[in-house]
Structures are given as C-alpha cells and as structure tokens.
Amino acid sequence: MCGIVCYVGRRQAKPILLDGLKQLEYRGYDSAGLAVADGQSVAYHRALGKIVELERKIGDIEINGTTGIAHTRWATHGEPSERNAHPHRDMDENVYVIHNGIIENFHILKRKLEKKGVRFRSETDTEVLAHLIAQNFEEDLEEAVRRTMGQVEGTFGLAVIHRKVPGRIVVARRGSPLILGLSKDGHFAASDVSAMVRHTNEVVHLQDNELATLTVEDFSISTAQAKHIERSIETVEWRAEDAELNGFPHFMLKEIFEQPETVENAMRGRLEPGEGVPKLGGIVPVWESLKECRHIVIVACGTSYYAGCVGMYVFEKLTEVDVEVELASEFRYRKLNFPANTFIIALSQSGETADTLAAIREAKRKGARLLGIVNVVGSSIARETEAGVYNHAGPEIGVASTKIFTSQLTILTLLALLLGRHQNLSLTEGVEAIRALQELPGQIRSVLAQANHIEAIAQKYYSANNWLFLGRKFNYPIAMEGALKLKEVSYIHAEGYAAGEMKHGPIALINPEMPTVALAPLDDMYEKMVSNIQEIKSRRGPVIAIATEGDERIKEMVDDVIEIPATLDYLNPILAVIPCQLLAYYCASFLNRDIDKPRNLAKSVTVE
Ligand code: F6R
Fold first, then answer.
1. What separation in Å is there between the alpha carbon of 303 and the centre of ligand 1?
2. Nearest-CA neighbor of 544 among 462, 440, 443, 444?
3. Each residue's pLDDT tens digit, 455-512
4. Pick the CATH number of 3-242 from 3.50.50.60, 3.40.30.10, 3.60.20.10, 3.40.50.2300
5. How many CA atoms are closer than 13 Å to the CA of 50, on its beta-carbon side?
6. Whose CA is nearest to atom 5 of ligand 1?
7. Which of 229, 324, 371, 473 could form a disulfide with 221 if both were Cys (CB 3.0 to 4.6 A apart)?
C-alpha cells in the first residue's frame, strides 16, 4: 500500500527520495510524487504509474534541496491519477503533505473548509490535511500538525514540509507505521525500513499519537499532548543486499529459493535436541500462563491465515490445547467466548495488517492474552502483543508471500512442540520432532532442485483457465495456499478444497481442460487422496500429484508427479507448499505477469 520516505540532511534529497521510493515499490502503488525544498521554494512533481514515470517527468529539471518528502500512493479515495497523487498542497502552496491511512471524517472537514473558501484540487481525503495544517500554522509547524491531529479521525502516517520553515520535516502517526532513520548525513523517516536501509541501520519507531520533528542535526519526539518523549535507538538487522535481486529475475523466485535459510533462521538457537524441547526466548514473559493454557485462537489474513490453519492441525497433534483459527477480518463479528487463560496468536509478516491489528485489540478488550509471530521487528503487532517470536526471515519484497509462510509453519511447530512437551508429548516424540525439523533445510533444497521439472509442468498447463488444488488434514490449507498463490501472481482462477468436499460440488468442474494439483504425501490421508485422484482420472481430468519420494504407485495414476522427501506427517506442508509456489511462479512467468507487483495487490494491507 502507500509508502512514505523523507530526508533532511547535508546531501541532495532528490536522488535519496527517488531511490527510497523504488525500495518501496514492492508494496504496490499506482502513482508517486515528491516535494523538495531548497530554503526558498519547493520543487513539486507527481506522476501516474511507476516511479520511472515520475523520473521521466522530472527529466533533466534541476532540483536542488536537502529537505524533501516523497510518496507512493495506492488509491483509496479518488481514482489513481496525477491529480490525486501525493504530496498535496494548501491553496497558498506553503504546506506539502504526504499521508498513508484514511481520514474518516474528511467529508465533514472538507465541507467546513469549502465554506471558508478553500478550493480542493483532488478527490483525496489527504488534501484536507494540507489545508488544515495551513490554517493551524502560526510559527511552529509541529504545533500546527498537533492541532490538526486533534481535528481528524481515522488513521495516518504523515509527513509535512512548509515552504517558510526550511530544513525541517514534521511527521506524525496514528495507526500507520512510521520509522525514523538516523545517520551522520541527516535524518530519514519512512513507512518501511527498506526505504532507508541503504543509508542507515539505526532507527527509532514512532508510536501511535506521536509526532517527530526532524532537522539535519537533530530529531525530537513528542505526544499529541506535547509531552516530550525519549525513545531508544534500535539497530535493524536487515542489510541493503537483502532488498536486491542478486541475479534472480524476481523477488518471488529469490524468496522461494531463500527458504532453506529462512526455515533454518526460524529454528536457529531455538532447538534443544537432547531434551526434545525447543527454546523460545520471546515467550518467556508469558510462559507461566501459556503452559497452563488450554485454548488458543489464531488470527491472521491471507497466506498467514493458511499458515494458521496448518498450525491448528499441528497443535491438535502435539498438544492438549483446543485451537481455533479465525480470519482476522471476520474475528470482530464473531461472538466468541474465551475461556480463562485463552491465548490469541496473531500471525503477520508485516506486523501492520489492519484487520489483524483490529482483531488483537478486540481480543484484548475481551480479556485474552496476546502472542505475535511477526517478521517485521518493532511493527505494530509486535508491539501490541505481550510476547512473541520473530521470524528473522529478512525483508519479504515479493507481494506474494512465500518464505514467511514456511517460516511461520516452522515457528508454529516449535511452539506446539514446546507446549506439547509440557503436556502429554513424550521425550521420544520430542527428539524425533527436532531431528525431523533439523532435516528440513536440506529437504527444501532437494525440492528446489526440481525447479526445472516444475517449470516444465507449468509450461504444460499454464494456459488452463481454471485449476483445482486438493488436500486433506495438514495439507488441506496447502491446497488453499497453492490456489491463492496461483491466483495472485498468474491471475488464473484456482480453487483450494478439502479433498473430501470434492464430491459435494467441485467434481462437476472436472474435465480434460482443468488440472488438479493433488497433495498426496504418504500419511494417514494417503488412501483417501488416492481415491480422490481416481475419481478425477476417471473423468479425464489431468492430475499433478505432490507425493513422497519413491511412491511408485501414484506415478501409475497421475499425469505428473513432483516428489517431496519423506518427513513427519505434520511437517509435510513445509515441503509440499514449495512446488505450489514454484508452479504459481512459472505459470505467471509464462503469462508475462508482473510477478512481484501483481495487479491490485499491496504488500502490507493497512486499511480494513
Ligand atoms: C498472499 C499475501 C497476503 C498476506 C496477507 C497478510 O501472498 O501476501 O495474503 O499474507 O495480506 O499479510 P501479513 O502477513 O503481513 O499480515
């Protein structure tokens, strides 16, 4: 979704801002713009489309200035157009604002401003901010922003410059992430560390209802009530090269191939092989209550939700805990009764997904305890949960989530194993689990080694308009995730189904034009999956099986087989999802799709 990058310092702002915007491209956007101040005037440019359009528009225009703000917009109010792109200005062209989030009372504010003679140039909610700040400005820009914060309802991460206040940027947040970056050459602010990680690893997280003023030498943070805040500086572990393609054609493929390392990172320092018990330092603060817990609700969206669905089966296998999984977007509409000591586990790559945040806030109101499994350190979900476990998977740039899914499954398994070992799971089962977990990175490598074979299968079927994915138990959520991946990046229609449901409807679709991906590793669901495969074959539907290495029987039945190494039944999903990711990737590639930035999608969904 929208991205913010700002710089005030000793260097020219334009190249830093344009580069920062490019680092934010993965979030999904439809237009971009920037404003750079040189102490007297403000250079102001916007363009519809990609950052290259903005660069083309700027062309050789000389833009001098060491203070600037820049934005990528993902339309919510008003169509994608240059007119609606940020920054937005007040009528006197003094105030320039960029904004992520939604101003909910903008209609009322707009009407009031229009009555006072303000003429609006765009259809956006953001433009009210520019006019309000201009009206509230006397001498102090921070104070004008503070007053404006008191007038608006909704969510914002915003940044403002004023033509008459040189060398100063004011930023503020309520519900949309904003991070300050500190370097000896100046100060940054961005909605995402990837926009500034080339320049600095030293960051400060702004919290809700806080403002910050940045100058070349200094930064200061205060609350909406003007109380000064001291906040410690954190060092982010992401490196600039994490956000580069390193020879891969797309981030999605690079991230699929990173999975041996990211699964390893999810376990690093967390395994205790002799005892068969994982160590999870992040949950120590809640451990005394967690180990007694008998009811867990997992909340998440999209791919993270499907990871939660696998997690439910894993918890049921390894623990005595009752587990439910809820789509975060539906959670608030349920009337759930939480038994005492219920834990909510929020799964989120970004840690900023608005629905997931809203769900945990609602759960907290109802008295539940909160855990997070989050990739982005210091993100809102990481901060609003009592304890949790980080993925340590590095930035996920491809819009379609891949490496975080397998990392989430690994961490959920560690958590279930930890609880299970304090409940009914034997030492032998714990030791066996850890041994199998340790084998996963090597096994993932052997699945990835079949990339050419999987590409050839994709070539055979990419022109099919509809696909079906079937799985049972641990692999039922993998069927849904496989279908989601294919839809997202290739725009091919796909359905993920519990294989047992096929006879209750989807079987009507089976014909020689519709491929089915059957998740059929050797586990206690195998025979039932074989029956489903035969039902499809007898209706002349093509079948691609994801099956255990050496399963000769399935080869006789299906059109194509992708083999995964043998592992414990509850770890199969971590291996089985990888061929699904690769099938989606290669189909999208044959169809020439914009794989890392599929149409209409955004990386971090910060609106409900
Ligand atoms: C799918 C995808 C989305 C996200 C969902 C949740 O490939 O990326 O479905 O999984 O928007 O995002 P996070 O995990 O950041 O909360």
1. 5
2. 462
3. 999 999 999 999 999 999 999 999 999 999 999 999 999 999 999 999 999 999 999 9
4. 3.60.20.10
5. 9
6. 302
7. 229
